[in-house]
Structures are given as structure tokens and as C-alpha cells.
Amino acid sequence: MVMLRRTAITTVVCLLSLTSIVFVARLYRRDNPSASTWVPPFSAQRVQPCPDTLDWLLPLDLTYPIKYARRDIIVKPASDAKRLTVTKLPAPLFPDFQSIDLTDKANLRLEHCEDPLLLHVPEPPAGPVDASHIIFGISTTIARLDDSIPSLLRWLPNTRAKLFVIAIEDDDVPEESKDRYHPADPKATSDLQNRMHTLGLDVTIVPPLSRHHFFSQRYFSLVRVMYEHRQPTTQWISLIDDDTFFLSMPSLLETLSRFDPQQQFYVGALSEDWWSVTRYGMMAFGGAGVFLSIALAEIVNSKYAVCQERSHTSAGDIRLRECISWYTRTKLTNLLDLHQIDLHNDLSGIYESGRLPLSLHHWKGGGPDGKGYPLHTMHLVADICGDCFLQRWQFGNDMLLTNGFSIAIYPGAGVKALDLDMVEETWDHPSKVEGSVNENGVDHSLGPVRPRLELGKDKVQYRLLDSTLANGSVRQWYSKAGVDGDHDSVLELVWMRAAETTAAARER
Predict the structure, then answer these.
(1) How far is CA 226 from CA 136, 237, 480, in A?
(2) Could you tell me the domains of the chain?
(3) Residue 217 φ/ψ, nearest 5 degrees
(4) Is residue 422 within 8 Å of residue 432, measured between CB atoms?
(5) Which long-range contacts (CB under 8 A, 24 or more apart) does 126-129 make?
């Protein structure tokens, strides 16, 4: 079995001195220890012989024949296991590729199977998650709220946290209209709310407080809605977007527990893009998640009417920041693990960094293929191994698994040529801020960074194609398109808990 090291080296992330703006926000990041030595591999007894069918590949719409390899991974919680920046194992993860063709099932037979790999992971928190002291709020449309259910189901149910949603049909109204939106249909709203309740989501959908509110005003009015629905136990209200994704509710609760909610706290994150910070200010950018302590929420609510009247911005998170700055001396507490994601194109560097973010945003679209990053599917493996999502394991000298996102192979010098404490700069370069020493635009947030590698030459990347949860196990398929006449390649991982391997074997 893989025994993770009991000792760790603390990774200190340095914030570069940024002379173009005085940085008044307080910075917090949860540091991950690094692994500096190899961990001996351990294999478990094979759950079953090589399967004689691969029917679970049929829904993937693959073009056959393909090059295929698979491995079972059994995880077992251990009290001394730590989530490291990277865990190194000397043995290969997969057996050799073989060519398979599901259109020719008569000749389908797997020739290469390895015994399951046993990994120790940190023990999950004891008992159910209790977030009853937090109220979340979203301003959106009925259609976008419906579309957000799969992602909300990954982090909100069974936490006792409440969600209030200000929902409209749309805001596509004539400029001369006195109304600023089309109201949602009452029956459609009621049906959606009831359906979300049956899924374990404690959600209340309400109309805007005024027919004359623009989006920024509707967003800001979430403070009033949530504050008026507070309970004696409420400590925090949180404004989020419909595509804000929290990766670990226990980690979020642990982070918030560091702050006294009876004091005035304005908690959030700056944009990763320094140009956006210089343009919009030292504020909590809304998509990363904004948290107001109940003490601060009381003041903002008391100034609700005057702030709505005084502010003229079209952005809701700016309106909130203005109100806080006008009537309090509270400054932003900047959490580096909350992520607005104002970067574009290929975000592999962020996902492959080995860090466990508290939140991610702007995942529904973008990416190199324009299809976005389906976090509700990528995150399924967390049901098996907790905070192992996006955790990195190195196999041999050249393979790096980022769980739930990619498997990367580094030809030539291999992984040892990489500084894995630095984030690969895979995204499009942000707009430059003249006169700023923050030359790459992300030193204050993601830095330090290392140069982008050339795909297909310096880095061969298998991206997560799909993932499913069934029979107590999670299947992941990572794929790479063939080039120059070569077949497409698929790598399959099946994740199981140690206590459930026997049952999984009977089902498969």
C-alpha cells in the first residue's frame, strides 16, 4: 500500500511586490506540503480477472479501433495520509496499450491487465457536514438555475445550508421599458423549486425586490433577502454566481472558522487577472464567492436603500464593494484559494497545479475546444476519495495524473525537468498593465508561473473525456486524439473504496 510521508515541507508562496497599486487586502492560502522522495508502490489483490466485455465504453461515442489501457485503483483512508503537492510512485500506472474495436466483439479480449493499485488518502471529516450557519444567494434566470442543478448537487445537498435565488425569465427588454426584466412564470418557478427540494437542495426562489432593478441592483438586493431570512445561528451570508463551484464544503467551513463572524469581515478573492483588479478595484470578485460576516451584513443591510440609490455601476460585486467602503472601514480579506477565473482559453495550468481550490468559476464555457470544464462530472471521484480531486500522482519518470482532469506524459527529461511548485502558464496572456511589475498579470494570484509547454512535443496530454458513478465505483476515461493517421487513445481508471471492492467485483 502507498504510505504517504509523515513529514512534509511547507510550500511558501511568495507574493511579488506590486508597485502599481497599494495592496491593502489580507492574503490567505492553504499551503500544501511537497513530496521530495519516492513512495514505494503497493498493489492489491486483483478484484477480478481481465473483463471479457467493455460495454461501458459504448456511450462514449468513440471512433474504433482505439488504443486502450486500464487500471483499477483502490483507495483507503489513513490517519497519517496527507494531500501532497505531488506524490511520487516509481512504477508505471498502466499496462501496455492494446488496440480494441467494439464493433468486432467476437475477437475482443484484453491482453494486458495489472493488479489494482492501492492508495492511501486522508481520512474524511467525521460526521455529516453542517453548514447551517451559512446562507447562499444567487441572482440569475430560471433557465440558468435549472442548468446549474447538476453542479449544485455536487456541494450543497445535505449540508443544511440554505440557498435563496432571485430569479427572472430574462432581462431582454426594450431600453425604453420601465421594467428591467421579464418576470419568471410562477408555475415554472414553483415546479423548479419543488424539484430542487426533492433533490435535497434547500432552495427558496423569490422575485426581484423591484420591477425596476437592473442586474447589479438585483445582485446587491441579495444582501437584504438573505439578511431578512437569517436565523439566530446564521454567521455568514454568501453571494455567488450560478456557475460558482465549491470543491470541498469541509475545507470551506474550516477556512471560514478562522474568522469571527461577530466582527466585520468581507471575505473573497481578487481576480487572477491584474488588469481586472486595476480596473475594478480591490474587491471580492463575485464569481469566486463573496462572504459577509453577519456583523458586516447587518451594516450593509441598514444602508441598503441609500447604497442602491447612490451607486450607478452595472456590476453587482462593485456595488457591494462601494457600499462597504462608503459606510465601513472593512477591507477585503483575500482568499487565494477562491477563484474568479478571469483567464481565457486553455486553463490546464490552473487545474494541473496540484492545488485544491475552494472555488472555481467560469467553467461552463471556454477551454481550448470551447466546451468548458464539466466540473460536476470531473468532481465525481471525490465521492470515492474525498479531497483527492485534482490531486497529483507521479508514476515513473514521465507520467503525471491530475485526478479528474488529465494524465500528462513528459517525453525527454520527464517530470524531473519541471518545477511542480510553479503553475504552467497555459492560458492566453492577460492584458498588460502599463508601468506594473506584475508582467505576466497573475503574480499576485497564481504566481510564480512557468512557461507553457508545447503539446504533442514537450507534453502529451490525455484530457478527461467522461466520468460515471455506479455500483460504488467511479470510472474515468482520459482521451487523446490520434495524429498523423494514428488511432485515438483512451486510458481508463476505476476508483473504488477498499471496503467496497468485493461488492464492486460482483457487480462488474
Answers:
(1) 8, 7, 46
(2) 134-335 (3.90.550.50)
(3) -70, -40
(4) no
(5) 128/158, 129/158, 129/159, 129/160, 129/249, 129/250, 129/253
Q: How far is CA 378 from the centre of its chain?
A: 9
Other beta carbons less than 10 A from residue 322's beta carbon: 19
Q: What is the pTM of this model?
A: 0.88
| Omega within 30 of 0 (cis) for the link into 92 | no
DSSP summary character for residue 327:
H
155 grid coordinates: 456541494
User: Distance of CA 51 to CAs 55, 113, 115, Å?
Assistant: 10, 9, 13
Give the Å distances, CA to CA, from 399 to 95, 97, 393, 414, 467.
13, 15, 8, 8, 20
The residues that bridge with 449 in the sheet, in sequence order, are 423
For the chain, 508 residues long, the average pLDDT of each consecutive 10-residue run is 36 35 47 62 59 84 92 92 92 92 76 89 86 98 97 96 96 72 94 97 96 93 98 98 96 97 98 94 96 98 96 94 97 97 94 96 84 94 95 96 98 92 93 84 92 95 96 95 90 89 46
- Give the bridge partners for 393, in sequence order: 87, 401
Return all residues near 208 (Cβ < 8 A) that are at least 6 apart.
166, 168, 181, 218, 221
Maximum C-alpha span of the chain = 75
